[in-house]
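Quick note —
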Amino acid sequence: MELGLTTTLTDTDFATAREKVTAALKEQGFGVLTEIDVQATLKQKLDEDMEQFTILGACNPTLAHKALGVQPQIGMLLPCNVVVRADTADESGRTMIVEAMNPDLMVSVTGEAGLEPVASQAAELLGKAIAALGDA
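Predicted structure written out below.
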């Protein structure tokens, strides 16, 4: 099982990539509940420099409700994390990597078979969002 769903955006800046990701998620019924600017946090807390790196907490309310109805402890794995980060191999700074957590991990981690249909649907929708970014 893959840890995540990934795509690469070329010839784009970080802010544009983040906007495209948010729009692609919205098209599939996900909203962004949280945003963690990892780059700024590590600079502030540790005075460490790193590439642009943001974690978006994406949530599809219908799917979250279904998952919580099957296993309330699944809330510890919600929302789905989506990472937008600069590709450090590209010195131009115009390549961004987008990675979304594979929702099938919820089933794997919990062993709860009742989560399979919800995780499958979430994986399908997140996959469509990631795929749409490749088309953008």
